[in-house]
Amino acid sequence: MKFQNPAEEAAMPTYRIIDADGNVVDQSRDPSSTPAEEIIQWYRNMLTVSIMDLIMFDAQRQGRTSFYMVSAGEEGIAVGSASALSPDDVCFLQYREQGVMVQRGFTLKEMMSQLFANKDDNGKGHNMPVHYGSSKLNVHTISSTLATQIPQASGAAYALKMQRLINPNVPPRIVACYFGEGAASEGDFHAALNIAATKSCPTVFICRNNGFAISTASIEQYKGDGIASRGMGYGIDTIRVDGNDFFAVREVMLEARKRALEGDCRPILVEAMSYRVSHHSTSDDSFAYRAKREVEEWKRRDNPITRLRKWMEKKGIWDEDKEKEARASIRKDVLREFAAAEKLKKPPLRSLFEDVYEEITPEARTHMKELKELIEKYPNEYDLSPFEGGLKSLQ
Amino acid sequence: MKHIPRWKRPQSLVITPTPTLSRTTTTTTTTQFPQSQCRRYVSQGQGQRRRYASASPAASSQRRLNVPIDFATSPLLHQTSKTFGRTPGLPAGADLEATGGSQRLNLYQAVNAALRTALAESSKVLCFGEDVAFGGVFRCTMNLQDEFGPDRVFNTPITEQGIVGAAIGMAAEGARPVVEIQFADYVFPAFDQIVNEASKFRYREGATGANLAGMVIRMPCGGVGHGALYHTQSPESLFSHIPGFKVVMPRSPSQAKGLLLSAILQSPDPVIFMEPKILYRAAVEEVPNALYTLPIGQAEVLKPGADVTIISYGRPLYTCSAAIEAVEKERPDISVELIDLRTIYPWDRPTVVKSVAKTGRAIVVHESMLNYGVGAELAATIQDQAFLHLKAPVKRLGGWTTHTGLAWEKLIFPDVTRVYDAIHEVLDY
Lengths: 395, 429
Prior knowledge:
- The complex is a heterodimer.
- By secondary structure, chain A is α/β, with parallel strands linked by helices.
- Helix content of chain A is 41%, strand content 9%.
- Chain B is an alpha/beta fold.
- Chain B has 3 domains: 1-64, no CATH class; 81-288, 3-Layer(aba) Sandwich (Rossmann fold), CATH 3.40.50; 299-429, 3-Layer(aba) Sandwich (Rossmann fold), CATH 3.40.50.
- In chain B, the strands form 3 sheets. A 7-stranded mixed β-sheet of chain B has the order 3-2-4-5-7-6-12, with helices on both faces.
- In chain B, helix 3 packs parallel to helix 9.
- Mean pLDDT of chain B is 89; it is low at 1-21 and 24-47.
- The chains are: A alpha/beta, B alpha/beta.
- Chain A: Pfam families: E1_dh.
C-alpha cells in the first residue's frame, strides 16, 4: 500500500529559453532566426504597456480616472503569448493582460476611450476602467467577476470546433483564456478544465502565477505544486513556463496552439510564473502585506522587459539610444491620446438603458421618461454637460 | 396480516407521477411509467398505498374543490385541433393541413419535439446538460443524440456553473446552446454565471455587439407531490430581479413547443425556460407538427370575464380554472377573467393592466413563495397603473413563506380551495 504524497514528488520544471541576463539556455529554440523588426515590435508593445501603466496610475492618483490596474512584471506573459496567436483566435481575459490587447492591435485611442469611458468607448461607458473588449480583435469584454471567463472559454472553443466540423473551410481557431493563480481557486476553474477535457475543446488556459491574489500569497492559495500540477488530474497536457522569458512564453504558446488543434482537439494548460511587482490595483497599497525590499529586489533582479532588452543588446539590434527614442515616442503617443480621450464627452444618457436587451423594454422606456422628467423638473441638481447630446438622448 | 379495507382511492391523493426525482437514481426508473395520464398510471401502478398525502382519505368524499384536475377535459388544453384558432401563433385550419397536421403530445414530448425541430432547423443549435444523452431524466431529449449525433447532443460533467458558463461562451461565438439544469433547485451554483455574466453580457459588450442570442437554459420546476426541499422550487422571481434574461414558463404542450422554438431560433436575448415538471406527463393536448413560434413577452387571455382578473402562469392556471368554474357555477351573475402571463419577465403589463382596469379586481397566483414573489411585482404595478379602477385590494396567492417540507406539499402551494376562497374574498370586499 502506498499513499502518493505530493510533497515527495518533484515539482514540475519551468521551461526557459533565455536566462535573466539574456543568455540563451535552450539552444534548440534559439530565437535568433526571428526577424529583428518583429522582435523590436514585441519589445515596443511591452514598453507601451509599461509606460501607459505609469501614466495611468498617476492619472488615477490625480483623480482623472476612477481606477486602474497595472500589469508590471507580467508584460512578457501577455505580449509573448498573444504574439503566438492567430488574429482569428478568440481571447478571454481576466484584467491584467493589457499586453494581449496591445499585441492584437488595440490602439492607444481605443484604450484611452475605455479608461475614460468616453463616447468612443467600446463598452459605451458601462464598465470600470481596464475592462477592455473588441469584437474586431476577437477579445471578449472583461468582467470583474473572477474565473467566470474560464468555462466560457471552454464553451467558446467548443463552438469554434463545431464551426469547423460544419464548414471545413473555416480556419482552425483556438480560444486563449487568461487568469491569475488566485482565480484558479474558484469553482469555475474546476468546471472549465473538466468540461474542456471531457468535450475536447481547443482552449489554451494561461495561468499568470504572480505570487499574489491582492494580499493573499500563494502559500495561502494552494498547497499543491502550483496550478500546473492540477492539469494532469483533469487529463490535460500541461507546461510551466518562465513568465519573464518572452521567448519561452511565445514558444510554449505556439506549441500549445498547435497541440490544441490536433486531431479531435484538446485543451492545454500553461502556468506562467512571474511576480506582481505592482500594487494589485489603484485601490491597493501592497506594502501593507509585503516588504518593499522584496518588491524592489524582484524589480532589479528580473523583469521581462529588461531580460529581452539584454538579449537584443547582445544581438546588436538594440542600444541605449534606441531605448531612449522608443520610450520618448511611446510616452508622447500615450500622452497625446490621454489628452484627447479626456476631452471627449461621456456616452449619451440613453446608453444607460441600452443593451440590457436587444431592444429597450417598455419598462425601461418608462424609466427613461421618468428620469427625463425629473431632470427637467430639477435642472440645477444635475450636471448633464459631460454627456453627449444632453437630455435629448432620453427619448 | 390485517386486511386492508378496500376504500376507493381518493382522487385527491393522487400524485402526478414524475419519472425520477432523485439525482442519484436517474438511469433506470424513467421508462417504467406508462405514457398515459396520471390517473390511469395510479390505478395501474400504485395499488392501495397512500403516498405523501396531507389529508385524511376519509374526508375526501366530501370534497368538491380540492379534487384532481381533469386534464382530459381541461379547457386550457387543445383537446382537438379545432381550438387552435383561438391561440394566435398556432397554425390552424388550412395551415395545419399544409404543415403536417397535429398530434397528441404531453409536455415532455412537446419539449422533445421542439428540440428536435430546432436541431433540424439550425446547425448552430446544441443541446447538453447532465444525462441529456440517454434522453434526460424526464425524457425531454429522448432520441436526439441518435438523430443529431454526440457533437450536438451530449452529456456534461455534473457542474451547473460549468454548463451555463460553457453555454455563454458558445452563444458568444454564434452557437445557440440549449442547456438543461436537471432541476431548477440546482440552478444556484450557476447563479453567478446567470446573474453576473449572461444577464450583463450584452450590456458590458456594448458597441462590440457581442450577445447571447439563442442561449436557452431549460429547467424543470415546481411542485410534484413529493419533491420536498430540492425537487420543487420555482426560482422565477430571483431570475426576474435581474434584467438581461427573458423568463418563460409554459402551461401546456403546444405552448411549450411554440415558446421554446421562439426562444431558441428567434430570441435575440437569452431565455430561462422553466418547465413545470408536474405537467410533463399530465398535460396532454394536440400540438401542431409544424415549426411554429409563440411570441415571448405576451400574455394570453385564456378566459374573458368582467368581475375579477386572475393572473397566473404554469401549473396553477389549472387550479385557477377549476376554482373559477366552481365560483361561476354558484354565482352565475359574475365572471372571472383568467390571464396566462407566459413570460414572467419582461412581462406583459398592458394586457394585465387593461384587464384589471375593466374588472376592478385582481388576484395573482403562483407556486413560488409569496415574499418578494412575482405577485408582489404584479400587485404593485396594478395598484400603480389601475389605482382608480380597483374595487378591492390586489390579492396575492403563493406558496407559504417556508420551505417545501415533504409531508405538507399539498398544503403549501395554492390549491383550488385557496383560489376559490380568494375569488369570494375580493368579490365580497
